[in-house]
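Justification of computing resources. Each target in the renewal requires a structure prediction run like the one illustrated here; the chain below, 84 residues long, is used simply to show the kind of job we budget for.
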Amino acid sequence: MNGDNPLFTENEHFTDVAMQIDTEAACALRPIIKKFLAEGYNIREICHVLIHNAAALEHEFVLEAQWKAAKEKRNVGSETKTAN
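Resulting structure tokens:
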């Protein structure tokens, strides 16, 4: 979760893995977008909702990792106090 594997090259181009993520995301999102376009929704509003969702997922994963790290730190601290 710490981001040891970069998705961009030194020249800020996508790596092969980044291209795979891009392709998979497009394949997953295209049917959703087409469905709601066919129902008469605005492309910009659809994309805004999708971007919001991606940002919310990022926050969820980041906060979960931070929460777990803080919990582990508290547990280690309490074990040290208990041992003394």
